[in-house]
Amino acid sequence: MANSDSSSALAALGLDRASEQLYFRVAPASxxxxxxxxxxxxETPQGLLHDLAPLMEMGLVELRDDRVVVPPMALAVAALVxxxxxxxxxxxxxxxxxxxxxxxxxxxxxxxxxxxxxxxxPLDGELSSGGDPLELIGQMLRTSRGDMLWLRPDAWAxxxxxxxxxxxxxxxATGRRSRAIYxxxxxxxxxxxxxxxxxxxxxxxVISEVPTRMFILGDAHAVLPEPxxxxxxxxxxxxQRSVVAALTLWFxxxxxxxxxxxxxxxxxxxxxxxxxLLEQLVAGATDEVIARKLGLSLRTVRRRIATLMSxxxxxxxxxxxxxxxxxxxx
Length: 330
Hints:
The structure is a single chain. By secondary structure, the chain is α+β, with helices and mostly antiparallel strands. It folds into three domains: 2-75, Winged helix-like DNA-binding domain superfamily/Winged helix DNA-binding domain (Arc Repressor Mutant, subunit A, Orthogonal Bundle), CATH 1.10.10; 125-265, Endonuclease, Chain A, CATH 3.30.870.10; 273-327, Arc Repressor Mutant, subunit A, CATH 1.10.10. The protein has helices at residues 2-12, 17-26, 34-40, 45-57, 73-109, 133-142, 161-172, 186-189, 191-200, 241-257, 273-282, 287-294, 298-312, 317-327, and strands at residues 62-64, 67-69, 125-128, 148-151, 178-183, 203-207, 214-217, 221-225, 235-238, 259-260. Strands 3-9-8-7-4-5-6-10 form an eight-stranded mixed β-sheet, with helices on both faces. A two-stranded antiparallel ribbon has the order 1-2. Strand 1 and strand 2 (67-69) form a beta hairpin. It is elongated, with a radius of gyration of 34 Å.
């Protein structure tokens, strides 16, 4: 019965019948020299070495110096499984990387044939690095009109924040309007930075999370990092009017969801954190993530969640989201 089970295991590993039979012939003689083993099974050393190749490749048989060693099958199979698992993991990573390339390859194949096109012109914009960012912003302000729109996930931590604020103040002094969206944690992490810009006349709103840096100047300029995020370079500077308009619509969508900050407008009230808390609960965020995004301590977050669930009369976070939606709180 033991041999039958072992044979099944070897067959499962992909060995043919001849290799199985050879394994059971050499296993009892483990430790003999290659020549001694060959004599025992009536083979030549060269022929035996050739026939052992599939078993040696799987680690079921080893040639140590001049001796043929057959490790316990369980250990050999365990080692084989580990190797295959490592190969599978490596293959998985490579496949994931290749899968990420596929959409770009597919997109490239959708380009129409040049013979089918007329009046082909490049899009207005570029992907770039380097230069003086303040000078670039100044040039864009001088060559644009209309609202200045800003997504500012972490701008208060940037060394040139005061210089950018000065450029903003000069532009607003000419009658231009500026609107900025910050993550709500900025109210606790950088209240002075928000207050400075609010005093210049900028309209400030807050939202749970700002996904990327971006600014739009009128209908002429839009600048955002490539890829989206918080990096400064490389950056995409878009002047193509339709693309600028589309990004403006995205900003307006975020603006409509964001909450005003009354205390920056000379009033004493603060934004209703309850709504942002509910948004995070519905998204399934952990207490630690909520604390980081809202700029609150973990203890405060847990206390407010408990109070919120009590006010809603629910026992679970899922129920809190359902009940809050029913009441129109989110």
